[in-house]
Structure formats: C-alpha cells, structure tokens
Amino acid sequence: MPRAKVKRKSTAIDMTAMCDVAFLLLTFFILSAKPKTQDPIRAEVPAATVETALPDQDFAAIIIGQGKAFYKIEGADLKIETLKLMAAKYQMTFTPEEIQAFASTESFGVPISQLKQLLAVPPANRAEVKQPGIPVDTNINNELYNWVHETRTADKGLRNVELRVAIKGDSKEEYPTIATVIKTLQKQKVNKFSLITTLKQK
Amino acid sequence: MAELDTSGGGKHKGGKVRSKKASTRVDLTAMVDLAFLLITFFILTTTLQKPKAMDLVMPDKDEVTKEQLPVPESRTMSVLLGTKNKVEWYIGLPSKPLTAPTVDGFGKNGIRKALLENAARIKQESGGKDMIVLIKPSDKSTYADMVSMMDELNITNNQQRAIVDISPVEIEVLKTAGLY
Q1: Domains plus CATH for chain B?
Q2: Within an 8 Å CB–CB cutoff, is residue A124 touching chain B?
Q3: Is B35 within 8 Å of A174 when comparing Cβ atoms?
Q4: Nearest to A72 by CA among A184, A151, A11, A16
Q5: ipTM value of the model?
Q6: What is the pTM of this model?
Q7: pLDDT digits (tens, 9 = 90+) for A172-195
Q8: Is residue A138 part of a domain?
Q9: In this complex, do A48 and B147 lie within 8 Å of one another by their Cβ atoms?
Q10: Is A33 within a domain?
Q11: Count of A–B CB contacts within 8 Å?
Q12: Does A26 touch chain B (CB under 8 A)?
C-alpha cells in the first residue's frame, strides 16, 4: 500500500487584500490629516483640564506672544468679508489678487497700513517677514478692536451667528498684555470668550 | 550560439516550442511593507489632540451700574497672582483681612486645598451660601497663572468668581510676601 503523501502547501500568501487595506488606511490618514498651521510667533499654550473642543468655524483667534497681538480668522469667506469691511472703514482698496492672498493667509500681525506689503510677499517667504503685531491699546477704536468688530459684523451677515472669539496666549506672557486685549473685547460687549488650552491631567 | 545543450536532447523532438507562460501574480510583500510603513508614519505624526477651549465669562463692564448687591466680606476670598507661579490668598478686605494672607502654589496640595476648605467652611457658616472668589492678577503674573487659577476654580466647582483689577494695597501685600 502506498504511503499517503502529505501535500506540500505553498508558503506564498495572497497579499492582495492586505495591500488593499493598507492603502485604504493610508489614504484615509493622509486625507484626514490637517496640515499644522504655523503661527508667526511661538505661543506655548497653557494646560488646563477643560475638555471642550474648539469650534471649527465661526471663530476668530487672537494670538498673543512677546507682547504682540496677532489675528486669525477661520474660514476663507469670513476672511474676505472682513477684509472688505475693514477696507471700507479705513478707506482702502484691495485688488482681487490681494483679497485672494488674504483669504489664504492664516494669521497676521501687521497694522492695516502695512497689510498690502505683507500680502505682496509670497506665502512661502512670509515667515521671514518681521511682523510688528496689530496695534492694540486701551483706547476705543484701536485696530484690533475694529478687526474683531468687523469680523463679528461679517459673520452676522454671512451666517447669522455670533462669532466666538478665542485667545491663544503664550504661557509666559505677562498679564498686562492679556488684560489689554480682554479690555478691547469687553469694550464691544464680548464678555464671553474662549481661552485656548491644551489638555492636562488633574 | 556557443552553448552546450546538456538537456539530454530529444525533448522537443518534432514538437512545437512552447513559450513559457509567465505567472500573472506579482509579489506584493514589498508594497504592503511600504504601505504599512507610511501608515505608521502618518499615525505617529498626526496629533489627534485638538486644542481645547476654556470659556471665560467676564462681568459686564457697563458704565451704568445696575443695582448691585453688597457682597459680604466674610464670603469673599481674594486670590492675588504674583510672580514665580505663586498665589497669595486671604478672606475679607485687603486692609483688614479675616485670615492672614497665605502664600500658596498651584496643584492638589496648594490653592486647591485652600479653596475646598474655605468653600466648605463658608458654606457652613453662612447657611448654604457659596464662596465668592476674586482673582486679582498682578502685572508680574503670567497668562499661565491666570489659566491655572481659572482651572482650579473649575475643578473645585466654584461658580462665583471674577477677574478684577488689583489695587495698590494688594500690591503692597504681594510685595511683603516677596511676590512682586
């Protein structure tokens, strides 16, 4: 009687399905990743135990660091609308190219008189430009006041919602700078705003 | 060509020369390796942590003062924020505090303990009324101190709080403690 032979199996596995899954996941991660935006100044956010997430739209952030204030508007349409209102307020005209450049700007910190020069710089070189910060003081009608005010007006007009203002301050920033910004916000009855923090354990 | 046919001959005798059929299967191992390497890279580099936001409500700064209830000093705890990430707290008025000003740090054994103890004591003494905390950041304190202080109040569940400007008397109190 002949011996029953053990059939030798091939060691090669079909990799097709595995490859499919791997690339599917890869695509997902690449598409879901949001590029990290570089702020013109380094602001190391303080840690707190709050767990409310920051909204994705209808909000503007004031970045404070090294005694300077920078402003950031979320959403391209809101940026364009705000710029138009600001241009009307300061009697300036922006070309369509400049408006487009502004819509793709993340955050900026120049007085409005220098905004045209900043927008003329290509985005790749903008990190090298020294930005002096948006003028802010305790008087009414400083530039930051107007930026926030016009953004709120624009958001009301576009989506009919109240703009949320967030403050992203550097941990080491001394309190007077923060107080000036808070006072500016309170002057236009923005008494509720968010402080951007990172998560920490209790 | 100048090759020796050692294959014994006679194999293709008269028969057609068949072209060898190449397998259509490709070895995907290397491709899968690469894909997983990239996945690992993307998982590790993306920060899933979104920035969080702490809501801060400031008292309405209306010039027209509405009717305001007098605040009993026995229920008011003032926290002065000084340098070196330290705070100093007392209950009552700065000129004649009901408890001696105490220097504390942040964290579990620092100001949080004081907040909890005082809140419980004041609630008992005043018959169920909450403690009012006034945060007074000095010009030398940092933004992180203010956020930590607000966070401590969130942790201890204090609802009655306000950030107010510091007065010269209180700066003197901080100076004596070496925190200004």
Answers
A1: 73-176 (3.30.420)
A2: no
A3: no
A4: A151
A5: 0.72
A6: 0.72
A7: 888 888 888 888 888 777 788 888
A8: yes
A9: yes
A10: no
A11: 146
A12: yes
